[in-house]
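Hi all, long-time lurker, first post. I run a small reading group and we've been trying to get comfortable going from sequence to structure in the token notation. Rather than ask abstract questions, I figured I'd post a concrete chain and ask someone more experienced to write out its structure so we can walk through it together at our next meeting. Sequence below, copied exactly:
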Amino acid sequence: MGFSKDFLWGGATAANQIEGAYQEDGRGLTTMDTLTVGDAQNPRQITYKTVEGQVCKDERLAAVPEGATGYIDPEDFYPSHTAIDFYHHYKEDIALFAEMGFKAYRMSIAWTRIFPTGTEAEPNEAGLAFYDAVFDECLKYGIEPVVTLCHFDIPLYLADTYNGFSSRETIDYFVHYAETVFKRYKDKVKYWMTFNEINVLRSWLQMGIHPNDDATKAQAVHHLLVASAKAVQLCHDLIPDAKIGNMIMYAPSYAMTAKPEDVMENITYKRQVEFYLDVMVKGYYPAYKFKEYERKGIELVMAADDLAVIEAGCVDFIGFSYYMSTMSTTDTSIPKTPGNNMMSYKNPNLEVSEWGWALDPLGLRIALSEMYDRYHVPLFIVENGLGAVDVVEEDGSIHDDYRIDYLDTHIRAMRDAVDLDGVDLMGYTPWGCIDLVAWSTGEMKKRYGFIYVDVDDRGQGTFKRSKKKSFYWYKEVIAHNAENLQ
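-- Answer (accepted) --
Happy to help. Here is the structure in token form:
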């Protein structure tokens, strides 16, 4: 049994975490370009200057003048600006992916490379040509591009001018962008996703909104869902043989105790993910979400055909990230620990990573089973991995056995979900297949890759690529379709 012969083994990255070259060839600024470096003790900050020279940081984003187009504050360091310079190293990097035997490469397009402000009628040809070159390089080696349209980086101009996705105009700009890249790459890309981790409500980065009140956020989420549905319909019309999915962050939760209150709290937690899946896979707003908005006094403004658009724009598969599980309880006195885009209650039955994330391979099987039992569409694990500090030995070798152990246990859990639970699993693209800027902290020292990149937390280094022990291990896993794992 095991994985199908056409299983999509590969790796995953995001444009804002690898490309660098943030102002080259006409690229415009994104919301992610305003995010500074941080670490485990000091969270990343959103900071930039408006054209009026006003410095805006986090809670003061509400003071951005209407219509301002921001520029970056030179006194801060922004990791996305250089990242690992994939923009100039893509041929070398894709050749290394091919050496591992990748069947797929999950990546994203930087919206502002195509439309620098998001509002242009005509696209930036230099940006389009770059991705043509990247896709051609992948296809040369038989690697299928799996492309995310928007990975936490909407045009900064749309955030400043339209308050991002709180405005209906932003739907139209996104759909124009989606249509442009669908038409351009229809013969090169057969797997697409709309918004990365759409349930992770990073209001400024993902949606470009300020202020961040519940009503504004709910309206922006609705517009995101409509925009996604419209993109799905466009993809189906323009590329009939393509598959397009959504992308969510999935962290299964366990009730901390058998108390009914904890069980109900667990249901409430799960609905934070199921809402997005219900809308994007089933095509309708669930009753519990309308009841939540009613309790909060939120009235969504909808166009007459919004619900019909959502119903017609159901995705073909579910793409998701899995790094950890969490717990649910009503006991607020229990301390929390960091997790993937969340604070999490520590599970006493699990070990944690250097960054405090629960290590739970069985949780991946649970996640796969929960989603497949509820939605009955193919699943695609498009992010999974271990962030850790790697040590380069004197001879240049990197012995990341901890990463191998993590991936080994998770792949075997995936196989159990397929063999024992009957899950339809399309593929597996571990996160950060090459070292990149860690989204959670902005650090380079929190490394995920099979390929080491010599660059530090301040963007300094030779940018030389080298293979870790896990590189050779993963190459064997792909070559044997994981049948070598016992």
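A couple of things your group might point at:
DSSP finds 14 helices and 16 strands in the chain.
The CA atoms of residues 67 and 161 lie 4 Å apart.
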